[in-house]
């Protein structure tokens, strides 16, 4: 049997991989009607704010103190979010520089669907934070 045939056979016996959230649950928040746009979906800006908070809490923990968001270098909106969805933001420290930290943040919703509950990845992005002194100047991120 050729190598490629062998690989095909293995693949046909495996169930498709189910994606799970990446990182640690940093915040949960219920999307409310006040967070909707005129189309009936949750505003992207509200989602970004929740993700920034989730990344900021994680960066604050890792940097052992005050941080500020300096950049969002990647952001994807995969699916719409609706009122009543429970937004769950997961954060993963992917890079620590001298004064900066990059946190990959994924937002998933926990959505009731009759008696079932669906968990869906709705957004993800890379948030860069800089560790700050009390006067607002940058500082070195301490070793863990
Ligand atoms: C037990 C109790 C717990 C309490 C728990 C409380 C938790 C509480 C959580 C709150 C969570 C709040 C989360 C929201 C946080 C905001 O909303 S902050 C508000 C918005 N952000 C701001 O106002 C920041 C404004 N910017 C600044 O003040 C200045 O840019 C800064 C941040 C002081 C940096 O200035 P600078 O000295 O010119 O920095 P510079 O040398 O150019 O760059 C510094 C680092 O950033 C990197 N960088 C800069 N620009 C970029 C860029 N565009 N892309 C990538 N990297 C970049 C550089 O590469 C460098 O990295 P390192 O090589 O040092 O690792």
TrEMBL record:
This is HotDog ACOT-type domain-containing protein. Residues 21-135 form the HotDog ACOT-type domain. It comes from Magnetovibrio blakemorei. It holds the Pfam family 4HBT. PANTHER family: ACYL COENZYME A THIOESTER HYDROLASE, ACYL-COA THIOESTER HYDROLASE YCIA. The keyword Hydrolase applies. Belongs to the acyl coenzyme A hydrolase family. Keywords: Hydrolase. One of its GO terms (molecular function) is long-chain fatty acyl-CoA hydrolase activity. Residues 1-11 have a biased composition (Basic and acidic residues). SUPFAM superfamilies: Thioesterase/thiol ester dehydrase-isomerase. Residues 1-22 are annotated as: Disordered. GO terms for cellular component: cytosol. GO terms for biological process: acyl-CoA metabolic process; fatty acid catabolic process.
